[in-house]
Structure prediction request, 101 residues.
Amino acid sequence: MTYIIAEPCIDIQDKSCVDVCPVDCIHEMGRMLVIDPEECIDCGACEPECPVEAIFPEDALPDKWEPFVKINYAFPEGASVIDALVDAYATEHNVQNEPIA
Ligand code: F3S
Ligand code: F3S
Prediction:
């Protein structure tokens, strides 16, 4: 299994999660960060660090954010593929996440 970063990370990119990941498998893309599912050791350290609760174990991801399984799993295909998927999702769902004060 792996952890998944979902919609609340889009355009927020707090990055508190990056510092606690013991295997450095959380990677910055254009508008959000994603977890490399091949490298994630399922430790759970990142989940409580995210101030906008964007991180979930894959089997506990809310159904409405199912598209983020594909987005995180696209990590080996490169940033341009992920950025295109995120842009398409954000447009379709009119994502407007407010910056953290
Ligand atoms: Fe994103 Fe939360 Fe990490 S906003 S960068 S998943 S701390
Ligand atoms: Fe990193 Fe996965 Fe743990 S992303 S913090 S190894 S749950």
The chain is about 25% helix and 10% strand.
